[in-house]
Design brief:
Layout lengths: L4 H8 L5 H13 L1 H18 L9 H17 L9 H26 L3 E6 L4 E4 L5 E4 L3 E6 L7 E13 L8 E4 L3 E5 L3 E6 L3 E8 L2 E5 L2 E5 L3 E6 L5 E5 L7 H4 L1 E8 H12 L3 E3 L8 E7 L3 H12 L3 E4 L2 E4 L1
Parallel strand pairs: 5-6, 15-18
Antiparallel strand pairs: 1-4, 2-3, 3-5, 4-5, 5-8, 6-7, 7-10, 8-9, 9-12, 10-11, 12-13, 14-16, 17-18
Length: 320
């Protein structure tokens, strides 16, 4: 697909299909120049959003005035009037004002539109209109309005994982919907993972309220909750490690971390299938940090650390 200006504008306004949004994302990631072009368009859009219209829009009154003017024009059609340069300039000025007014009204209407931010194979950071910063992991879909209005700031995490650093605003709580589960905050930072069978929330700062089926649990910094879909049960616990943060920090921090847990996160990060072949290896503790290392390099270090073997067969990696 050819990525033209209209498609980029449609993407910023949230008016393209998910498939087109994914193609635009791939186009951006394919060339730094493409990504720069996208951000130029975004800068123009952000500037245009700050244009405000403080007048009163009354479509019925405007239509009536237009009809009256048309009737007057029809009555004067038979008259021959010499061209007046001053009047011509007045008409041009009126046309410019009309165009500007229509443009402001158009932007006003568009500000209610929804943006769909889709990530494929890259992590992406986005800033919302209220100043909140969102980091999206791979294969994530986030929906949010171009500008928050009303008494709440509502967004929807349709799939995937995202870290939210929410701008503080007590008058407008920040609400994240993930289907039947809602997460409510005022100003805080936390991670949300929309899994196939559950929602996972991990809090770094502030207080987060998680609600499902009428039941609510409050989380403080360091807390973690797993909410099973279509269930009123909450599994709240202390978050045991910082591995959830790998897609933001670009590192895997193992601090007395059992081997099974690291394998679980590696499978998610590298889309691999690591299996621990012997039960007695599951709880082997790791004390190290892997930063910007390939999966093969990490597996070599694990093999040398514990004196185990790593075998690859038919797409499965077996540690035994």
């Amino acid at each position: 697909m050819e990525i033209n200006d209209d498609l980029l504008i449609g993407c910023l306004l949230g008016e393209v299909s998910p498939a087109t949004a994914e193609e635009i994302s791939a186009w951006r990631n394919s060339d730094p120049a493409n990504n720069e072009r996208y951000h130029q368009f975004r800068a123009i859009w952000e500037t245009s959003r700050n244009i405000s219209y403080n007048g009163t829009l009354n479509p019925e009154a405007s239509l009536q005035k237009l009809k009256e003017k048309a009737a007057m024009q029809k009555a004067e059609d038979a008259k021959v009037v010499p061209r007046n340069l001053k009047n011509s300039w007045l008409k041009i000025a009126a046309a410019i004002l009309l165009f500007a007014g229509c443009g402001l009204f158009y932007l006003y209407q568009r500000s209610f539109k929804e943006i769909q931010l889709v990530t494929n194979n890259e992590v992406e950071v986005d800033t919302l209109s209220d100043g909140s910063i969102v980091t999206l992991n791979k294969a994530t879909l986030l929906k949010y309005p171009i500008r928050f209005r009303g008494k709440q700031r509502n967004v929807m995490l349709t799939r995937g994982e995202a870290f939210f650093n929410v701008a503080k605003n007590k008058a407008m709580p920040f609400i994240i919907s993930t289907g039947s589960t809602t997460i409510k905050v005022v100003g805080t930072s936390f991670n949300v993972k929309n899994k196939a069978d559950a929602i996972e929330v991990i809090v770094e700062t502030g207080i987060v309220q998680v609600t499902q089926n009428g039941n609510t649990v409050s989380l403080k910094p360091g807390d973690k909750v797993l909410v099973k879909r279509n269930s009123a049960l909450f599994r709240k616990e202390k978050n045991p490690d910082q591995l959830y943060n790998y897609y933001r920090s670009k590192e895997f921090v193992a601090d007395n971390t059992p081997l099974w847990r690291l394998a679980e996160v590696l499978n998610e990060a590298y889309e691999s299938k690591i299996v621990i072949g012997r039960k007695e290896l599951n709880e082997l503790p790791l004390h190290t940090t892997f930063k910007d290392e390939s999966l093969d390099d990490i597996l070599v270090i694990i093999s040398r650390t514990f004196g185990v073997t790593v075998e690859k067969k038919n797409g499965v990696i077996v540690i035994k």
